[in-house]
Specification:
Layout lengths: L5 H31 L2 H14 E4 L6 E2 L5 E13 L1 H6 L3 H18 L5 H13 L1 E3 L5 E3 L4 E2 L7 H8 L8 H4 L1 E10 L7 H4 L1 E3 L4 E4 H5 L1 H5 L3 E8 L2 E8 L6 E4 L3 H18 L3 E8 L5 E11 L5 E4 L4 H4 L9 H11 L10 E2 L4 E4 L2 E4 L10 E2 L1 H6 L3 H12 L3 H13 L34 H6 L8 H12 L4 E2 L4 E6 L2 E5 L4 E3 L5 H16 L14 E9 L12 E10 L6 E10 L5 H18 L23 E2 H10 L4 E2 L13 E6 L4 E5 L16 H9 L4 E5 L4 E4 L12 E6 L1
Parallel strand pairs: 2-12, 28-30, 31-33
Antiparallel strand pairs: 1-10, 2-3, 3-6, 3-7, 4-5, 8-9, 10-11, 12-21, 13-14, 13-26, 14-15, 16-19, 17-18, 20-23, 21-22, 24-25, 25-26, 27-29, 29-30, 32-33
Helix pairs in contact: 4-5, 11-20, 13-15, 13-16, 13-19
Amino acid sequence: MSKFNEKDSMRRYRIIAWVFVISFFVVVVRATYIMTFKRDYWMQVADRLKADSVPVAPARGNILSCDYKLLASSLPEYKLYIDFRAMAETKTDTLWAEKEDSICYGLSQIFPQKSAEEFRRHLREGREKTYTNKKGETFVGSRHWPIWNKRVSYSVYAEVKELPIFRLNKNKSGFHFEKFNARTMPNGSLASRTIGQMYGEIDSARFGLELYYDSVLRGEKGLINRRKVLSRYLDIMIKEPVDGADIVTTLDVNMQDLAEKAVIDELKEINGELGVAIVMETKTGDIKALVNMSRVSDGKGGYTYREVKNNAVSDLVEPGSVFKTASILAALEDGVIDTTARYNIETGGGVWPMYGREMRDHNWRRGGYGTLSVPEVLHVSSNIGVSRLIDRAYHDKPEKFVERIHSLGLGIDFDLPFIGSQKHAIVRKPKRAKNGQYLNWSKTTLPWMSIGYETQIPPIFTVAFYNAIANNGRFMQPRFVKEIQKDGVTVKTYEPVCLIEKICHDEPLRKIQAILEGVVSRGLGKKAGSKSFKVAGKTGTAQIADENGSYKSGTVRYWLSFCGYFPYENPEYTCIVCLKKRGLPASGGGMCGVVFHNISEGIMAKKLKHNVEVARDSTSSPIPDVKTGNLLAADYVLNALGIKAKGGWNGSYATGNPIWGKADNAGKSMRLTKEDVTDNTLMPDVAGMGARDAVFMLESRGMKVRIIGRGKVKKQSVAPKTKVKKNAVVTLEMG
């Protein structure tokens, strides 16, 4: 028989059901009561919580250079306010009436843009302002009246805090502030487009690394709840703010400063419109300097140069002759040309017909170059030579040429940390229709593409390609940030990334390297070279379209460039320099080469070590010039330099007692001769002494000294061996 009791079970279910029904009605009644009878009370609570819950901004992380120097940091700034109702509640408003003049005068001294009378009117407006709440109650005095309408530094805040009344605690004085993290750049505008900037008032990143790494730098906001307890407000931390992390960039402050100066100097010299320079570390792909200088009005009828746009990573430009290196390397890799004499090319008198158009070399008015070898074609940057070589090899299969160009790295995508940067270069591929005809290709496309036209390549892609040549074929991703730190501890590392292990075989690579060295040592890139180390690279000069996309507007613009690496034997850095200007003269080698030379020499100056003999010539002396005076001091310095002085005297520098005498430089040796100057009643001969020894000797005899000029004593106003007069003034003429 079943033990299941249906009546007991149903009784239990009914009880449970009634519990749920009663609970439901209790909740509904309670909710109705809160929504109606207690509505005003809870609305006031909500308003108070909204007003008293204050977000706490975290400290934004720093941006550091490769050697951990500050590039961008946050400093506190303050907006100052006064709570007039708090003063009324604490009975401080009577004190305000007494001190108002002093406060307004003090504010006008701190903020001279506004007079004391203007401050008085402004503060009285806030003190007399009336507010009405939802209950209809009227209050006089603003709780949050701005003292000054802009943010101020901590030092200004501290000055205001010392004014009468304001120095009291905030519950009595009503003086309070809002704190912000202001972004500062210790190096001024150096690399400003790369580092980025902030919208100050809303603490929002605008561009650059500031924007790309905003989530890392920003941190997380905290929250403080302000509660009034016994007429005092207590700040209760609900959530601690989490400060932002620091990012360590690859930028080098010294290289950036050097590159900016070199670019600006040349832009001023040629009246250029735009200058770009990139310095890349060969082995790692680290960007050590990135310069983008545009000509802008200075507001005084003249021009100045500053960073407006990150042209180096965002501008699609026709690269011009620096692209010829890729064309020749592609042909060498495919084996369709060689550097032997059998591949010599005829360029004629500098003008060559190409499918109904004329191809010209830069010296066509001077008769051209005639017959050239493959290396010479790049040495002199012959348009005809390159275009004829490439057209002859790829005319029937242009898609093979474009595919090879892409395989060299110019078709690869970059992941750059800049909003608006180009992801890839544009080197278009030919497309065939079903009938075998090309849809987007003409007979002149390949010849003009081979010399840098009909392609669009940002400078960052060009420098990365040349860096691969310098790096023995390893194509490195440009790196701008190498690590993220939190409280000085590395939390994430960005390792160098190799995108292509080998862009071509070793033999074509060695040949193109040798050709690029010849461009600088024997060709058009001589001005980029150095007497201290070898440089390899390629010049470029291209006519570019105006702002309307026209080449025939009457104003010819040129995109000049030089891209290369140094030192040639063991490359450390690759650099590209691009300049945009109007009209002639226009020379990539002559103008960009100069900038490249100045940058490379400046970078390598710290690394070059010369033997000391290099600094000596037939007229130099290995013995330094020694002044007459204290022989002990002179002998101490000479011994430290490894020079043994001759002379019939002795003494120890440690004893401190001066031994006076003269020094005679015999060219290869130094002789120190002691002199008797023990008679303090006679005027000594101080000619040839330094100022310190001469003053010591004269003042020890009770005389006063007046010095004119610098150097050694040439003339003294009181003759030697005359009677000394106490407190007499002796004038010493130095020279």
